[in-house]
Write a structure and sequence with these properties.
Elements: E1 10-14, H1 19-31, E2 34-39, E3 47-48, E4 53-56, H2 59-66, E5 70-73, H3 80-90, E6 94-97, H4 104-117, E7 120-122, E8 128-131, E9 135-138, E10 147-154, H5 157-169, E11 174-179, H6 190-199, E12 205-211, H7 216-227, E13 232-237, H8 261-270, E14 274-275, H9 282-286
Parallel strand pairs: 1-2, 1-5, 2-4, 5-6, 6-7, 10-11, 10-12, 12-13, 13-14
Antiparallel strand pairs: 3-4, 8-9, 8-11
């Protein structure tokens, strides 16, 4: 049992007929994820992935027909805001949006509506989540992690994979890995996920992977110092990035002296978090 999603989660994929949607839906099916339907306006009534998954014209019709409670969105940037709004109106409880490049103004409008509807969002511009041994919703490779007692939350997709693989190499597993994405305006943040791991009886320790830019890590540090009873290990990416240079994610930039790795590391250390100098050091810190 993990946080947010498990083997019982029923997923509908918005954009399933596209190249990326088809590829990742097939990987999810292979992992055992319940991909119960896809959505592509105009292609309702078709079946994809060797006839295993029905396609519907709208998310509402797909949810009514399949009982889906989660939507994964992998549609072009221009269609993603409306896709999230449509999913929110369909009755799903969780939306995972992989699409990158969505303008901040559009995300502000979407986030306000999802908050009003009480729907949880992971992303956009994220790798999704993986509950090892039960379900994967997104693009995190399923074979790099094993079930265990460590919760993982990350802004960085690639580093997420490195950490999960490093944990697996020494026999450590994860309850759930959540890639929240690095955009300035997104759904669930560090504090939301840390609280879920704190409340999860199967999670004993937490790994938080941060990066430069913004103040999310500093806010998480304050939350950890005041509300977390479980040990937290962290790594901050971009420690050698020059000020003013964007590093991958839209939010990964040091501007005006704010958002530096040094400030984030100092705040997390002050909160009692064990800091890793590199991702491969994380398993050793967890076993101390």
């Amino acid at each position: 049992m993990g946080i947010l999603a498990d083997k019982n989660t029923r997923v509908v994929v918005q954009g399933i007929t596209g190249r990326e949607g088809m590829f990742h839906s097939e990987r999810m099916l292979e992992y055992g994820t319940q991909v119960v339907g896809g959505v592509r306006p105009g292609k309702g009534g078709e079946w994809v992935l060797d006839g295993k998954v029905p396609v519907f014209d709208s998310v509402k019709v797909a949810v009514d027909a399949t009982g889906a409670d989660c939507s994964m969105i992998v549609v072009p940037q221009s269609a993603a805001p409306d896709a999230m709004l449509e999913a929110a109106d369909s009755g799903v409880r969780l939306i995972i949006c992989l699409t990158e490049g969505i303008p901040i103004q559009d995300m502000m409008r979407v986030r306000a509506y999802l908050d009003f509807k009480g729907v949880q969002l992971i992303g956009p511009n994220c790798p999704g989540l993986l509950t090892p041994g039960q379900t994967k919703i997104g693009i995190i490779p399923g074979d790099i992690a094993i079930p265990g007692s460590i919760g993982v939350v990350s802004r960085s997709g690639t580093l997420t994979y490195e950490v999960l693989a490093a944990l697996k190499q020494v026999g450590l597993g994860a309850t759930t890995c959540v890639g929240i994405g690095g955009d300035p305006v997104k759904g669930l943040n560090y504090i939301d996920v840390l609280q879920m791991f704190e409340d999860d009886p199967l999670t004993d320790q937490v790994v938080m992977i941060g990066e430069i830019g913004g103040s999310d890590e500093e806010k998480a540090a304050e939350f950890i110092s005041q509300s977390m009873t479980k040990p937290v290990v962290s790594f901050i990416a971009g420690q050698s990035a020059p000020p003013g240079k964007r590093m991958g994610h839209a939010g990964a930039i040091v501007e005006g002296g704010e958002g530096s790795a040094a400030d984030k590391i100092a705040a997390l250390k002050k909160a009692g978090v064990q800091m890793a100098d590199h991702p491969e050091q994380i398993p050793d810190l967890l076993r101390k």
